[in-house]
Amino acid sequence: MSIGLKDAWKHSFHVGAAVCGKMMNDPEYDALIKKHFSTLTVENGMKFGPVHPEENMYKWDDSDLVANYARKNNMPMRGHVMLWHNQNPSWLFLDNGETVSKNKLYKRLEDHMAEVANRYGDVVYSWDVLNEVIDVDKGDENGFRLSDWYKICGNDVYEFAFKRMREICPKAKLFYNDYNNESGKKMDVSLEFLSRLLDKGVPINGVGIQAHWYYNFPKEEIIVNAIEKYSKLGLEIEFTEVDISIYEWDEKRESSQFFKSRPEERIVKQAETYKNLFRAASTSSAVKNITTWGIADCYTWLDDFPVPKRKNWPLLFDENKKEKPVVGSLIEEGQKRDKK
């Protein structure tokens, strides 16, 4: 098809992709990005550890490659991520071998946010200020994850992060981002957390639903319900890390059980789940973006997580960077809705 995903859905929401710097010099990725995507996210290069590995050193290589590509091609970016429990540098929570003080950790976070945001603020339209601070299974009595951030600062640091980011980036959209927050207890706790912050005047513009889903989950009505619940808080919604695994979480953990080739019957069901997402997202003006976590099946983090070397096929383009049939279906669906 001559038209891409981004144009087929441009009157509903942006269609974006998470990328890494090395993709920016690949002509095949370049062609796919320019045809199908309107926003970019740096997959790992803007996270605290990769971009700020030592206290007085930043490594901009990967994120600069993506940001410069985005600037050149007039593509706005999602900034990912400021505060997260994972991929942090070893120095962050220590001071002379001891646990860093709360005040010093606040200052480190503040300095980091300012440094990263000031470098990319011209091209980043929204920031994931917080990522995955809720853990309903192993968290505290209120569902907060027992991370180093939480242990040192308590949950006050979450409010601080949003307020300070608003001062640094007065015009950017500020997001809370999480996984499994589209249904169940995780959604309930997320709604309560966000509602409480909003009632206190904390500057939150939106919620990111990561959407690391499975070929058979979720149904369209689950996605619609989540959109309705979050939008009632006055929040924008972005599906920020979409990939749809052909395995369920606990399935086929032993290498002898892995699919040796792409299971086509599951690819068909995967396509239906992608269509569920795009259809549900188009029901509300609160949804602003659907971003896939990667572009093609030749490179995806799911090939090593949660089971190492278990080949996955979770994206819209195959291992040869060719469109899966679902891409054409989504384009047709978008064009139909555009004509209504």
Shape: globular
Q: Could you tell me the number of beta strands?
A: 11
**Straight-line N-to-C gap:** 21 Å
Question: Oligomer, anyone?
Answer: single chain
Would you identify the regions where 5 or more consecutive residues have pLDDT less than 50? none
| Radius of gyration (Å) | 20 Å
> What is the percentage of strand-forming residues?
15-25%
**Spatial order of the strands in the main sheet?**
1-2-3-6-7-8-10-11
Summarize the structure.
The protein has 340 residues and is α/β, with parallel strands linked by helices. It contains 11 helices and 11 strands. Helix 5 packs parallel to helix 7 and helix 9 packs parallel to helix 10.
Task: Give an account of the 3D structure.
This protein has 340 residues and is α/β, with parallel strands linked by helices. The chain is 38% helix and 17% strand. The protein is built from 11 helices and 11 strands. An 8-stranded parallel beta barrel has the order 1-2-3-6-7-8-10-11, surrounded by 5 helices. Helix 10 runs parallel beside helix 11. The chain is globular, with a radius of gyration of 20 Å. The mean pLDDT is 97.
